[in-house]
Amino acid sequence: MNQSRLKAKSLVLIVILSAGVAALSGNTPVFARDLTIAVPKNPDNLDPATENSNPNLRVVLSLYDTLVRFDYRNDGKIVPGLATEWKALDPKTLEFKLRPGVVFHNGDTFDANDVIATFSDVRLGRDKSVPTESEEFLGGIERIKAVDNMTVRIHIKAVDPIALDRFATFPAQIISETALKQARSYNDFTKLDAGSGPYALVSHEIGGATVLKKFDAYWGEAQAAADKVTFVTVPELSTRVAGLLSGQFDMITEIGTDEFLQIEGNPNGAVAGGPIETLRGVIFDSIDSPIADPRIRHAMNLAVDRRALVKGLYDGRTDVPRGWQVKTFGDMYLQDRPMDAYDPQKARELLKEASYDGKEIVWRTQHNYYTKQGETAQIVQSMWKAVGLNVKLEFKENWTQVLADTPDRAIIDASSGAYYPDPIGQFWRRLGPGGSFTKQKFFTVSADMAALGEELSTSVDTGHRRAVFAQMLDKFDEDPHSANFYTAAHFIGVRKDRLTYRALPTEYLDLTTTGVSFR
Amino acid sequence: MNWYLFRLGRACITILLLLILAFFALAASGDPAQILLGPDTSQAAIDAFREKWGLTLPLWQQFLIYLNGLLHMNFGLSYRTGESALALVLDRIPVTLSLVLPTILLSIALGVPLGILSAMHRGRFIDRLAITLSVVGLSVPSFLLGVLAMYLFSVKLGWLAPSGYVDWSSYIMPVATLSTVGIGTYARFTRSAMVEVMSRPMIETARASGLSEGIIHRVHALPNALTPLITITALEFGHFVTYAAVVENVFGWQGTGSLLIESVSARDFAVVQAIMIITGVTMILANLLADLSYGFIDPRIADLRHRSARRLRTVCES
Questions:
Q1: Min Cα–Cα distance to chain A from B140, Å
Q2: Interface touch A207/B41, C-beta < 8 Å
Q3: Which domains can be identified in chain B, with CATH numbers?
Q4: Is B164 within 8 Å of A232 when comparing Cβ atoms?
Q5: What count of CB pairs under 8 Å joins A to B?
Q6: What's the whole-model pTM score?
Q7: Do B162 and B154 contact (CB within 8 A), yes or no?
Q8: Using one digit for the tens of pLDDT, what is the confidence trace for B193-214?
Q9: Nearest to B37 by CA among B47, B28, B27
C-alpha cells in the first residue's frame, strides 16, 4: 500500500515537473507571418493630427494612407496614393482625382467627403477646444471643395512651393468621414482606426500593446507583409535586446550603437536602419547670452570635429550633413556644398578677435531625450574646451527647464526633422521667423535673411530656389543660430532567422511587402 | 475608538499634504504642454493644449478646481489620453498586485525561516552566511538583478521570456527579483526579533523546565517575535509597490509603477495624483490593519490600549 502510494506520488511529481519544464522551455508558439515588435512606447492617440510623436509614426504608416506619397526609396519622389492624379490649376489651387474602389477599415468607401472631413476645421486646429498639431503644417489650406464624388479641389492661402508635399505625410493622413461623425467626441475619435492602410487595428491598449492585422481589402500593390503585428511596450532597452535575442520579439526599435555588438554577435540578430531625415545639434541663444557675438558662435561651429563624433558615437553608420540639409531634399539638395568645416585654429583666432574672455557658457542638456544626447554633449564640450571655450553642462529633467528664458541660457539641444523634403520643411521651419525658437527669443531673424526666406517660400522656380537656399546657408554660416553635429539615425534590431527589414530614412516603419520579407 | 479616529484623521491630513506637495512640485518643475508635445512643436499647438486643459489659470486656482473635483470623486482626466485618470490607474492595479502579493508571500516564506535559522545558530557559520545573503539581497539594485537574470535565463539559457506576461513562468524573474529585497528584510528583522526574545528570562525558565529547543522556538520565541514582523509587512507593502515600479519597467509589465514613471515624466498631474491617493490609502489601510492585528496577536497590547482609554476617561471626568 505504502509503495503504491509512493509510486502515485512520484508519478504526480514527474507530471508536474514535466509540465513545468515544458512551460519553461517553450514560449508562445510563433506563427510564420505574425510579427512582434518591441517599442519603448506605444502611441497614446492614433489620430495623426493629435499626436506628433515617434511612437505614433511607427504605427500610422500601417494604418493610414495619404493622397500622395513620398517614395523614400526613390529620392523621395512623389507618387500616387489615394489620389491617382493631381494638377495645379493655378499657383494656389490643387486638384486631386481620387482613387476608386478604396475601402476603409470600417467598411466605408472612400470618396471626396472623406478628404473634406480630413481637412475640416476641427482637424486643422481651427477649433480651439480641440488641440491638434496640424496648423503648422496644413494651416495654409483656405478651403476645400468637392468637384464631384471623386475629385477635390484644395485652395491654399498663399503660393507654396511644397503645397503638394504637405499632402504626402504627417498630419495629412486621410480619415473616414463616417468614423469622425460617429465618434461621440473628438477624444474618442483619436482612439479609433479611421484609416484605409494595409493593416487594420485589432486593439489599442493605452500604455500596453497595439495589435494590427492584415487588411485583406487593401488597394495598394505593397500589401501587409504579416498577418498580425503586435507592438509591445518595453521601455527598457536591455529588455528589448534580451527579447530579440531570446526570440520573444522579431523586431525592436530605438537601439543604440552600444547594442550593435551584442545583436550582430548573435547568429540570429541583425541591425537595420541608418540615417534619417533629422539633424541633431544645438540651438544658440544669440540675443542675451555670452555668445551673442556671431564670431563666437562661428568659432563654436568650427571647433566641432563631426567626423570624429559620427565614428565614435555611431560606428560611422550615420552622416555628417552638408549644412542645414538632408539627402531627401531631392532637387533642392545642394550636393556640392561642403560639410561643416573643422578648423580649430581658425576657431581660436575668431575667439581672440571677438575678445572672448572665458566667460562661462551654459549648455542645458538632458541625459537621454535624444539618442546619445549626454555623450554627444560631453564630447562636444571637450572639443569646445580645446579651443578655449568655457562651456558648462547643466543636465535638466525636462523641456520646460531646458527652454526657460533666463539670463544663463546660451545653448540647448535640438533635433530638426525634415517633415517635407525641402528646406522649408526643415531649415526655414526651425530657423525662420515663424519657428518656435524665434518665438522663444533664442534669436531674431535679420531683415535680409527674412527676405530670402520669403523668396524661398513663395518661388516655384527650383533653380532660383536652389540659389536662394545656397545664399541663405552662406549667410547662416557667418551668423549661425545653431550647430548641427550629425544626421540622426534610427536603428532597428531584427531577428534575421525570421525576416529581413528594409528601413526607410524616416521614423516611419514600413511593414508592407516592400519593407518586410519573411524567411 | 478615539485612538482609531485619531489615526484616521492623521492619515487624511497626510494624504492632503501629499497631494499639495506633489501638485505644486510637479507643476513648478515642468509645463505639461511643453513636455508632452515636445520641443519640435509649434507655439499654436502648445497654446491650444494649455487652453484646453486650463493650464493658463493661476496654479492655486488649478489646484482648487482639482480638489473640488476630488471631493466629488472626480479624479480628473489624463492630459496624455483624455481618459479618466482613475480608470487608467484601476486598470493597472491588478498587474501590480499580481507581482506584489506573490512577492510578499515568497519573502515571508523564505525570509522568516532564514531569520529563525540564523537566530538559532547565532554567531555560527549558518548565521554569518544568512546575514551575508540578506545584506546582498538588500543591497543589489533591483534593476541590476533583473537585467542579470534576464541575460542568464532568457538570452543564454532561453528558458524564460524576458518581457511582459506570456504564461505563468513570466512571473518567475520579476517576482524573484522583487523578493530578494523582501527576503533580506524579513530575514534580518526575524533574526533580530528572535535574538531579542531568546534573551528574555522566560526562555531560560522554559529551558529549565526541560522543554526541547524546538518547542521553545516554536511555542515561546516565535509568537513573541511576530509583532514586529506585522509592522514590517505593512511597511514593506509600500516598499514593494515602489520597487515594483523599477521591476515593471525592466520586465515590461504595464502596472501602476510603470504608469507612475510615465505620468511623472509627462507631468500628467491627474494620473500621478490618482496613483498617490490610491497608494496612500492602501498604505494607511495596511498600517491600520497591522495596528488592529497587534491586539489579536498580543493580548498585552489590547490590554494596554484599554487601560490607556480608561485612564483618559478618568482624567476627562475629573
A1: 18
A2: no
A3: 2-71 (no CATH), 86-317 (1.10.3720.10)
A4: yes
A5: 155
A6: 0.85
A7: yes
A8: 989 888 888 888 988 888 888 8
A9: B47
